[in-house]
Design brief:
The complex is a heteropentamer, with two copies of chain A (223 residues), one copy of chain C (234 residues) and two copies of chain D (211 residues).
Chain A (H helix, E strand, L loop, with lengths): L2 H18 L1 H21 L6 H19 L2 H9 L2 H7 L2 H30 L9 H27 L4 H29 L7 H26 L2
Chain C lengths: L1 H20 L2 E2 L8 E2 L11 H28 L2 H33 L7 H21 L4 H29 L24 H38 L2
Parallel strand pairs in C: 1-2
Helix pairs in contact in C: 1-6, 2-3, 2-5, 2-6, 3-4, 3-6, 4-5
Chain D lengths: L3 E12 L2 E11 L4 E5 L6 H8 L7 E8 L2 E3 L1 H4 L3 E4 L11 H11 L7 H10 L15 H13 L5 E5 L7 H17 L1 E5 L3 H4 L4 E4 L6
Parallel strand pairs in D: 3-8, 3-9, 6-7, 7-8
Antiparallel strand pairs in D: 1-2, 1-4, 4-5
The chains are: A mainly alpha (223), C mainly alpha (234), D alpha/beta (211).
The complex binds protoporphyrin IX containing FE (HEM), adenosine-5'-triphosphate (ATP) (2 copies) and magnesium ion (2 copies).
Chain lengths: 223, 223, 234, 211, 211
Amino acid sequence: MSASSTFALVRKDVHSELRTRYALNALIMFVVVAVATILFALRSDQPTSSVLAGLYWVVVFFTAMSGLSRTFVSEEERGTTMTLQLVATPSTVYFAKLIVNTALTFSLTIAVTVLYMTVFSDSFVIQTMSTFLVTVILGSLGFASASTIIAAIVAKANTRATLYPVLSFPILVVLLMTVMSATTKALDGEPFEGALGDFQILAGYILAMTGGSYLLFEYVWKE
Amino acid sequence: MSASSTFALVRKDVHSELRTRYALNALIMFVVVAVATILFALRSDQPTSSVLAGLYWVVVFFTAMSGLSRTFVSEEERGTTMTLQLVATPSTVYFAKLIVNTALTFSLTIAVTVLYMTVFSDSFVIQTMSTFLVTVILGSLGFASASTIIAAIVAKANTRATLYPVLSFPILVVLLMTVMSATTKALDGEPFEGALGDFQILAGYILAMTGGSYLLFEYVWKE
Amino acid sequence: MKAVKFGSVILITFVLISGLAIPISSNPQGWLEFPNIPGLEEKARNILYHVPIAWTTVVAFLVGTFYGFRYLKTKNIDDDIKSVSAAGLGFMFCLLATITGAIWAKFNWGSFWNWDPRETSIFVLLLIYGAYFALRSALETEEKRASLSAVYSIIAGITVPFFIFVMPRIMSGLHPGAKGDPDGSGPVVQLKMSPNMLVIFLLGLVGFTLFFIWLFNLRVRLARLEYQRSVQHP
Amino acid sequence: MTSVSLKLDGVSKEFNRRLIFRDVSISLQGGDTLAITGRNGSGKSTLVKILCGLLSPTRGTLMYALDGKDIEVDAIKDHIGLVSPYLQMYDEFTGLENLEVLSRIRADRNITGETIAEALKNVGLWDRRNDFVRTYSSGMKQRLKYAFAVLHRPGVLVLDEPTSNLDADGIAMVERCVREQRSHGMLIVATNDADEAIWCSQRVVLGDEKV
Amino acid sequence: MTSVSLKLDGVSKEFNRRLIFRDVSISLQGGDTLAITGRNGSGKSTLVKILCGLLSPTRGTLMYALDGKDIEVDAIKDHIGLVSPYLQMYDEFTGLENLEVLSRIRADRNITGETIAEALKNVGLWDRRNDFVRTYSSGMKQRLKYAFAVLHRPGVLVLDEPTSNLDADGIAMVERCVREQRSHGMLIVATNDADEAIWCSQRVVLGDEKV
Ligand code: HEM
Ligand SMILES: Nc1ncnc2c1ncn2[C@@H]1O[C@H](COP(=O)(O)OP(=O)(O)OP(=O)(O)O)[C@@H](O)[C@H]1O
Ligand SMILES: Nc1ncnc2c1ncn2[C@@H]1O[C@H](COP(=O)(O)OP(=O)(O)OP(=O)(O)O)[C@@H](O)[C@H]1O
Ligand SMILES: [Mg+2]
Ligand SMILES: [Mg+2]
C-alpha cells in the first residue's frame, strides 16, 4: 500500500460521486424522509433524550446502509473491479474505501445533526458538546470500519441491497448501543468524563474491526 | 398491453426473486433487523400509538425502498432493459412492475405487522381492524405506485440525478403522513368513519400516481 | 465416536432425570436434595439445561469460526463443510437456549423478553447465524461461498468478546453479574451451588458438549457424502 | 409466414447536438439483405437501435409495413430478432429459462418446449442449458443471443457485430442462421468486417462525418 | 527496461467442481510470444485471468520473475498490460480522465500528461478525449483499453479477444501494438481467430474437455 495511490483512489471515488451523485442523492432523500417521518410520528410527544438519541442513530444506520455499499457494489456492477485489482494492491483499496466511507458517514451525521437541531429544537439540545463530537467522530469511524468489509462481501453476492443491512446489523449492534448511550449522556449534560467508558469501548471496537478487516480483506477482494 | 405477457413478466420477476429463496431470506432478515433497531432505540420507553404507527411505516418505507428500487435498476445495470423493451410494450412493463411492487409491499406490511404484534404485544394493539386493513392495502398500493415510477427514473439516474430526491420527497411524505395518521387512528380505536378522510386522500393519491405514471412511463422507459 | 455417542446420551439422560427428580429443600440434607436458591426456588432446575445449552451454542460458534479460519488458510473444501455443519448446529442450540431462557425468564422475571444484555447477545447471535445462512444462499460459486462466509463469521466473531465482557457492564440487566447487581454475581458464577448440584451441572456441561461433538461428527459425515454424490452426479 | 417491409426516410441522429449521421434513407422488402458498415463510432449500432424502434431518430421517419399494411414501430418488435452487444440475457436464470421466460413475456404461443430445445441444440448450448448465464463464457453468451433472436423465426433479423466472441464453429452457426433467414425474411447486418458484409446484397456506409 | 519471465506449472482450474482445463504448464522468457486458442468456453479467458494474478488456480503454481528474481504475483501487476472484455473503464469519467486516474492509482511516476496524450493519439481517441466513456461506441471503448494497456510499456502484454469491436483501422492499430510489444517484451494473446494466433510463435490449445 502506498499513501499516494490510496489518496488517488480516494480522489477518484469522491470525484466520481460528485459526478453521478448516486450515493449522495440516496442519502439526502433517506435522511430527509426519515427525519420527517420521525418528526411526524413524535409530533404529539415530548420524546426523552434516550429515545431521541436512539432514533438519531437509527436514521444514521439505515441511511448509511443505503449508501455505503455503493463503494464496492458499483465497481462490481460496472465490471471495473478487475481494472482496480490490476492497478492497486488490496490494502490500498481497503484503506481508500475505508476513508471514503468514513467521510461519507461523518457528513451524514452532520446532516442528521443539523436537521435534528432545527426540527427538534427544544428537545434535541446538545449539552456536552465535547462528548457529542467525540461520539460522532468515533461513531462514524466505527460504522465505516465494520461496514467497509461487509460492503466488499456483499458486492460479490446476489441480493445486495437487502443483504447489506442484514449482514451489518448484528456486527453493528455493539457500536449502536455504545453510541446511543454516549449520545444520551451528551444530551443529558453529563460531564465528558462520564462517557469515557463508552469511548474506550468504541476505540477498542474500531481497532479490532479495522485490524480484522485489513487482514481478511484480501480473501474477499481477490477472486 | 396484454394480460398474459404482463403476467409472464410478473412471474419472471417473482421467480427471479424466489428461485433460490435468497431474496426472501434477506428480506425477512431485513425486517427483523429494522424492527430490532427500533426496539433498541425504544428499549426503556413505553411508546405511544402515534410513535408506534410512525415507526411501523418507517420500517415499511426503508425496507420497501431498498427492495423496490431494484426492479428497474437491476434491469438497467445488467443491460437487460433493451431485451425487455424488445419483448414487451411499455405498459406491460409498467403494470407488471406495479403488480410486483404492490405484492412485495403488501407482504412486507404483513410481516411487519406480525412482528410488531408479537414484539410490542401490549402497546401495538389494533383496535379498529377495518381501518387498519384498508390502510395497509391502500398504503401498499400507494407505496408501490409512487416507488415504481421513482424507480424507473432512478434507473436512468445518470441524466436526471439531481431531480431525484427533489421529486421523491414530496411524493413520499404526503403518503407517509396519511398512512401514519390512519394507523394511529386504528390503534387508538377511533371508529372507521374517523379515517375516511385519510382514505380519500390515499385513494386520490393512488389514482393520480398510477395515472400520471402510466402516461409518463413511456418517456422514462424508452431512450 | 461410539464412546462420545453413548457418553452424551447417558449423561444427558442422567442430568435430565436427576435435575427434575431431586427435590429442593430449604435445608438440604445429603446428596439427594438441592439447596433453595432465593429468588429461583424450583425454577433453579433450569440452570442444569439452559446454561449447558447456552454454553454449547458458544462452543459451536467458535468451532465454526475456527474451521472458517482454517478454510482461508488451506482452501480445503472439507474445512468449509465442517464450518457450515458447526454453524447449523450452533443455530439449533441457539434457538434452544433462547427458548429455555425465554421460558425461564417468563417465570422468573415476568416476561419472555427484557433486553437484558445476555438476551441481547443471544439475539444478536441468532441474527448472525441468520445473516450467515442468508449470505451463503446468495453466493453461487462454491469457493466464493466458502471464503466469504468464513470471513463473515470471523468478523462477527470479533464482536463476541464485546458482548461477553463489555455489554453487561454498560447495560443494566437481570442476569446475575450485570451492572448494578447487588450480589455481584450469582449461583453459577460464584459456584454457590451445593456440591451435588454442581456435579450435576458440570455433568450437564460435559454431556451437552459431547452431544454437540457427536452431532457435529454425524453432520460432517453426511455433508461429505452429499458433496461426493454431487461430484459424481453434478 | 408474414412479409415485412421497411422504409427509413431522411433519418438523422444527434447526441447532445453532435451529429452522428445525416439523411439516411433505406427501403427494404421481404427477402432483402442489408449490410451497415462504417468505422468505429460511425453510428452503426445507433442506426440498428433506431431500426428496431429502441431509439428515436432526431429527424426523419421510420415506417414498417406487415403484408403491405403500415404498423406501429412498437408492434413490429414481435417480428424482429436482434443480436447486439447492447442486448443482455438474464444472468440469474439458466440459458433454458431465459428463452422460456422471454417467449412467455412476448406472449408468443407458437413457441413450445421443442422449439426452444431445438434452438439450444442449434447453437450448441444444449448441454449447458441448466447453467446460469452468469457462468457462461463470452462466446456462450453470444450463442444464447442467437438462440433467442431466431426462436420466433422473425421477419427481420438484425445482427450487430455478428461474429464477435465466436470461434470457427460459432461462425459456421451464424452463417447457417444467415442462410436460413435469407430464405424467408429480411436480414440486416451491422459490421466492421468485410467478410460479413458480403452476406448482404445492399449496403449502407456510415461515417463521412468525423469520428 | 526490465525483463519478465513466467512459469506456469501444472495448473488446473475448476468452477464448482467442473473441470475447465487440466495440467497446463507454460514457461516464457523476455521476448516470447504465446497464443492461447481453443473453442468457446474452453477456458481462454480463465487462463488469462490466472496469468494476470486475478484468479487463483485450483491446482498448480504460477511464478513470475523480474530480471531473474522471483517476485510476488501482486507485484507483477505493475508490469502487465491487459486488454479483455472483462476489464472495464470508468463510465462516468472521460477517456482522458480514465487514463489519468488509473495511472495515479498505480502511482506510476513515469507517466506524464504527454505520455497519456500520445497514447490517446495512437488509438485515435484524441479528438474524443473529453467525452464520457459512457457515450463511446463499442470500438472506441476497446481502443481506450489499448491506450490504458500499453501506457506504461508493460513487460507483459496480455490480449483477450484483441480485435473484437474494431474496424480495419483499429486492427492495424492492434498490429502496431503487437509489433511494438514484441520488440521489447512478452506477448500473450487469447483468441478464437487463426489470423491473430499467427502473431505468436508458441501456442497453447485448450479445450480437450467438453464445452
Ligand atoms: C434467551 C436468552 C436468555 C434468557 C431469557 C435467560 C434467562 C435466564 C434466567 C432467568 C436465569 C436465572 C437467573 C437468576 O439466577 O436469577 C439465567 C441464568 C443464567 N443464564 Fe441465562 N438466559 C438467556 C441467555 C443466556 C445466555 C446466552 C447465556 C450464556 C451464554 C446465559 C447464561 C446464564 C447463566 C450462566 C445463568 C446462571 C446465572 C447465575 O445465576 O449465576 N443465559 N438465565
Ligand atoms: N464464475 C464462473 N462460475 C462457473 N463457471 C464459470 C465461471 N466463469 C467461467 N466459467 C466456465 O468456465 C468455462 C471457460 O470460460 P472462459 O470464459 O474462460 O472461456 P473462453 O475460452 O474465454 O471462451 P470464449 O471464447 O467464449 O470467450 C466456461 O465453460 C464457463 O462456463
Ligand atoms: N448515449 C450517447 N450519448 C452521446 N453519444 C453517444 C451515445 N451513444 C453513442 N454515442 C456516439 O455516437 C457515435 C456512434 O456510436 P455507435 O455505437 O453507433 O457506433 P458504431 O458505429 O456502432 O461503432 P463501433 O463499431 O465502435 O461499434 C459515437 O461517436 C458515440 O460516441
Ligand atoms: Mg457498434
Ligand atoms: Mg473468453
